[in-house]
Each structure stands twice: as structure tokens, then as C-alpha cells.
């Protein structure tokens, strides 16, 4: 089923680890009918964490792109990891998203990674809604978390819901449901149907005053956005629902405010209103500015390389799209592409604007977590996301575009790797296999690098943290049937010394002690001065450049 562009929502669910992104995503998939039973993070049965490694650890590592349908909207969800080792994954997702749901824990409030992902979303101007989850936890507080979002994130949350009760006591869960501040109704969720059914009722007397206060705050925030509505609000102390929804949408899209909801995904409370809000308040691809790029290889006489060019999100424009993830698949690598303009058609050939080579688009797939379905129409329109089989050379961040209308979109930038290890196959017969495996893994994961150290001959892999490298090592075992040993690189420290005179030669001992390696490049002149004898004795004119000298100090 392909939706018209204004009904498409490309969203991410972002948060600090453990805030409940995966559980919330699971509930969404359940209500949207993608899965027949919601999976549990704690049982390792979720649909988004389909990678065995993720299920085992209970964290989300790789962004899984999933399509679901809700009340006429086609929602592409990119589940993103919260662990600090995988921040680059979040960054790449944000690049291709139009909107985000930011999940907070009502108990922990705004956490370190909530701040990081919030800033990343700011960087890409991604409109957001907030979901304050875990309202059932002991010590949970809606108001405290709401204030933290305001202060620590310098955001402008506007509550569209408040909780009915919060936290738990020794006798049970006190959080019972939510109050919808737009309709001024209570919503109680039925646990038997895992929240699929819920009752809409009048607000209990004990919560009425509180609900009215919060609603007034919401109305004031919205009235401020429009002079006419403000006047009307002063007169009537109310805003018609139609105006309210329109202004909330406009302000969410331009980043002025963030509609805020609450619930407990684990207890099946309050997830559907978040899904409703994704359609109601988050942008369609049409609400986003045209995508900007440059002309990589001008054909026209007057065109200059690097000339800025842009594409509107329309099927009538020439095709352009960005590869934002490459995932291993039984039948070959699956490239996830965000189509910005034109149509992506199976059987077509596109230009890879980075390499200048043509890539074949063999098949188009829509991905529902671990299941996938071939796109019947063999065509994906501007604004949508699809998995593609065929491209051989494309890597994450590449632009694929119409051959006659080239455009190079700004690539996705990845941070430098922070940790390195030496890796070798358990069996020396697997050297070639190791090489091929590392090549595949680094194509799929741009924050993973593998190089051969010229001097020691060791294969050095580097990544974003210990967890990152460990996960990749386990993938080598499981996906590629390759056992490897990892250890510290033999060379712990190396200094390249280019000396013009002896005074410019500096020798530093590594703080960890151990061997010190110098690559000495000397312009050989009579060598005198305060250079240690052990070095001088190993330096002989004519032998030095570019040999490696090991110096014991
Ligand atoms: P993620 O790391 O953000 O994806 O978080 P998960 O969805 O994996 O959840 C982390 C932990 O919090 C798991 O043990 C969940 O069962 C638990 N959890 C998620 N949502 C809730 C909730 O609403 N209430 C409570 N009490 N626990 C929750």
C-alpha cells in the first residue's frame, strides 16, 4: 500500500537508553497491526531488536526501518539506539527523518543521552513530540520531568495530556490513565486487550481542577502564536478545537513548541494518542524544506561543478535519494534509501553521485522489522523510504540520482573512531575470509574501520566503543561463521619524527611504558647533540629513510 505524500510520516523514536523506546515501538507495531502480539524487551522477543545481539542485551543497536499504517497515515519508523557507542546511528537517522518522538522516563527525567539526542535533533531542525513514559514507576513525576525538559533542554513542551495518578505504592500501580486536555476527557486503557481497547469518560472530580489549570497553560501557549486567536482567547477564555489543532501543528513544525504526552508503554497506557499525534502534528515530507545539494558533474556548458542545486519533494522532479543504512540480508545487502524527489523504480539504473558510477536498482522492499515485503508497484515515490537490493558500491551517505540530472546531497558525517583493537582469525586459513568480512562490515557500518598496520602486519579494527567492537566481533561469529581473537594492538605508541636538525628530534616515552617506535625520517647530516646513544648507535647514514627503528629506552 502506498500512501499519498502528505500522509507519509518519516519518524524516529529517540531517547536515553532504557527510557522505553523499544517497548513503545513494540506497542505501536501491535496497535498498527504489524505484529500480532507485542514483544517484550525483557523476554528478548521484540520486533525491532531483531538482531540476536540486541535481543540478548536488551538494547537497540541498529536502526531498523519499519513501515506501519495508522488511521490513513503511512508511518516509517526508524528505531534508534540510545547507547552512547551508537550515537552516530542516531545522527544518520535524524538526517533522513522528518519528525521525532522523544521518549523520557518519568522517573529519571532528562538524562545525558536525552540531551545529546535533543541537540542532534536541533541540529537537523527535526520537529518533535515528547512522550513521558514509565508513569507507573515508583517516584515517577510528570511535572518534574516536564519542567526538566523545559529547563535542561531549553525546550517549549506543551502538555496535551496529564496523568491520572502517578507512580506506584506497595499496594499497586497508582497511575491509571491519562486526561486528554484538548477534548477534556479521561482515557482508561484495558489491560486484557493489551491497551487496544480504552474507555473515554468524564474527568473525575478530584482531577478536574488540575486538568483545567494545565489546559489553560496549553491554551495560553497556543494563543500567543496568533494575534487574532489571542484576542478571541481573551474574550472567550477558549480556542475552538480546529484553530487549536492547526496552530499546534504549525508551531510543532516550525519548532516553536513540542506537544507532550504521557503514559506507560509497559502497562499499555497512552501509546495510541502518541500515534495519533504523529499524524496530527509531525510533518509530512511536503512540510520539509527542499533538499539541497550540488551539481557533481555538470554537463551543460555554463554549469559549474559545485553549483548549488535543490529538489522539491515531488514525483515530477528527477529522482534523488540518500542511502542512510546498509543492512546485511540473505539475498545481498539491503540499502535503505530516503527518496527526496522523483520516483525510485525497480529495474532502473541510477548514478552514484560520489563515485560517478551507475548502480542497478534490482528490487524494492518495504521492511516490517524482521519481515519484509516486495513493493508491488515496483516504485517508491518522493518522500518515502524503502530498502533496495542491487547497489554494489553504495555506502551510507551516498546520493543515488537520475543519471541525466545529477545532484550530490551533503553526505552524512560520522565521528572519528575512538577505540582500536588488533584482530586475527582463530585459524590462519581464514585470513582471506577475515579480510572480506571486515570489508562487508565496514560498508554496512561507517563508524567501523579496518586497516592493516604496515609495520606489524596486524589487522587493526576501530569503532565507537568497547560495546560496539564486541557486537561486531559477535556478528563475525554468527553471521559470517568466523572466529576471531582480539587483543591490544602490538604498537601502543608511534611517533613520526621528521628531523631537519638534531634539535628538532623529540623523543617521548609513552605514559604506559613499554616499547617506543619511531619512524625516523632524517635529512642526514653529521648528527651531534643530546640524542640518546642507543638511538645514535642505530642510526646510520643511508639506512634511515624510511626504515622503522625500534628504540628501547
Ligand atoms: P530503550 O532502551 O529505550 O529501548 O528501552 P526499553 O524499551 O528496552 O525498556 C527498558 C526497560 O524499561 C525494560 O526493562 C522495559 O521493560 C522497561 N520499561 C519500558 N517501558 C516501561 C514502562 O512504561 N514502565 C516500566 N515500569 N518499565 C518500562
Automatic annotation (TrEMBL):
GO terms for molecular function: GTP binding; GTPase activity; translation elongation factor activity. The keyword tRNA-binding does not apply. Keywords: Elongation factor, GTP-binding, Nucleotide-binding, Protein biosynthesis. Residues 286-314 are annotated as: Disordered. Residues 6-286 form the Tr-type G domain. The keyword GTP-binding applies. GO terms for biological process: ribosome disassembly. Catalyzes the GTP-dependent ribosomal translocation step during translation elongation. During this step, the ribosome changes from the pre-translocational (PRE) to the post-translocational (POST) state as the newly formed A-site-bound peptidyl-tRNA and P-site-bound deacylated tRNA move to the P and E sites, respectively. Catalyzes the coordinated movement of the two tRNA molecules, the mRNA and conformational changes in the ribosome. This is Elongation factor G. It comes from Gimesia alba. The chain holds residues 1 to 553 of 699 of the full protein.
Amino acid at each position: 500500500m502506498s500512501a499519498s505524500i502528505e500522509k507519509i510520516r518519516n519518524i524516529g523514536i529517540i531517547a536515553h537508553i532504557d527510557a522505553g523506546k523499544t517497548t513503545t515501538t513494540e506497542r505501536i507495531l501491535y496497535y498498527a497491526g504489524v505484529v500480532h502480539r507485542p514483544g517484550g524487551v525483557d523476554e528478548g522477543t521484540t520486533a525491532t531488536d531483531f538482531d540476536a545481539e540486541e535481543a540478548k542485551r536488551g538494547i537497540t543497536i541498529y536502526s531498523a526501518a519499519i513501515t506501519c499504517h495508522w488511521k490513513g497515515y503511512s508511518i516509517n519508523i526508524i528505531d534508534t539506539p540510545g547507547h552512547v557507542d551508537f550515537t552516530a546511528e542516531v545522527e544518520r537517522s535524524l538526517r533522513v527523518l522528518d519528525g521525532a518522538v522523544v521518549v523520557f522516563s518519568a522517573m529519571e527525567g532528562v538524562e545525558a543521552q536525552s540531551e545529546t539526542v535533543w541537540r542532534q535533533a536541533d541540529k537537523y531542525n527535526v520537529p518533535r513530540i515528547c512522550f513521558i513514559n514509565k508513569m507507573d514507576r515508583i517516584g515517577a513525576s510528570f511535572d518534574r520531568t516536564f519542567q526538566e525538559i523545559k529547563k535542561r533542554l531549553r525546550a517549549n513542551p506543551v502538555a496535551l495530556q496529564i496523568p491520572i495518578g502517578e507512580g506506584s505504592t506497595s499496594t499497586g500501580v497508582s497511575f491509571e490513565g491519562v486526561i486528554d486536555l484538548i477534548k477534556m476527557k479521561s482515557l482508561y486503557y484495558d489491560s486484557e486487550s493489551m491497551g487496544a481497547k480504552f474507555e473515554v469518560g468524564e474527568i473525575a472530580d478530584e482531577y478536574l481542577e488540575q486538568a483545567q489549570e494545565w489546559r489553560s497553560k496549553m491554551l495560553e501557549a497556543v494563543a500567543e502564536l496568533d494575534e487574532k486567536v489571542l484576542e478571541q482567547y481573551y474574550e472567550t477564555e477558549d480556542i475552538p478545537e480546529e484553530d487549536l489543532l492547526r496552530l499546534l501543528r504549525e508551531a510543532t513544525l516550525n519548532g516553536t513548541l513540542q506537544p507532550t504526552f504521557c503514559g506507560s508503554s509497559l502497562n499499555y497506557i497512552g501509546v495510541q494518542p502518541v500515534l495519533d499525534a504523529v499524524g496530527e502534528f509531525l510533518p509530512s515530507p511536503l512540510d520539509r524544506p527542499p533538499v539541497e545539494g550540488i551539481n557533481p558533474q555538470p554537463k551543460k556548458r555554463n554549469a559549474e561543478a559545485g553549483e548549488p542545486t535543490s529538489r522539491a519533494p515531488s514525483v515530477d522532479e528527477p529522482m534523488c535519494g540518500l542511502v542512510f543504512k546498509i543492512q546485511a540480508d540473505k539475498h545481498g545487502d539491503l540499502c535503505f534509501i530516503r527518496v527526496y524527489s522523483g520516483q525510485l523504480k525497480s529495474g532502473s539504473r541510477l548514478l552514484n553521485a560520489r563515485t560517478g558510477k551507475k548502480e542497478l536498482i534490482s528490487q524494492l522492499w518495504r521492511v516490517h522489522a524482521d519481515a519484509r515485503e516486495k513493493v508491488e508497484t515496483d516504485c517508491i515515490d518522493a518522500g518515502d523510504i524503502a530498502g533496495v537490493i542491487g547497489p554494489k558500491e553504495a555506502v551510507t551517505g551516498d546520493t543515488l540520482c537520475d543519471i541525466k540530472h545529477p545532484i550530490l546531497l551533503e553526505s552524512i558525517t560520522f565521528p572519528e573512531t575512538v577505540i582500536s583493537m588488533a584482530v586475527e582469525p582463530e585459524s590462519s586459513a581464514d585470513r582471506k575470509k577475515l579480510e572480506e568480512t571486515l570489508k562487508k562490515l565496514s560498508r554496512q557500518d561507517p563508524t567501523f574501520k579496518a586497516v592493516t598496520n604496515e609495520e606489524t602486519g596486524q589487522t587493526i579494527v576501530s569503532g565507537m566503543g568497547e560495546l560496539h567492537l564486541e557486537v561486531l566481533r559477535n556478528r563475525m561469529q554468527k553471521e559470517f561463521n568466523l572466529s576471531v581473537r582480539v587483543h591490544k594492538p602490538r604498537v601502543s605508541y608511534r611517533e613520526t619524527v621528521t628531523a631537519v636538525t638534531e634539535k628538532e628530534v623529540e623523543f617521548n616515552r609513552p605514559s604506559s611504558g613499554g616499547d617506543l617506535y619511531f619512524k625516523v625520517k632524517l635529512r642526514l647530516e653529521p648528527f651531534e647533540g643530546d640524542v640518546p646513544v642507543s638511538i645514535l648507535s642505530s642510526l646510520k647514514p643511508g639506512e634511515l629513510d624510511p626504515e622503522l627503528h625500534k628504540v628501547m629506552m
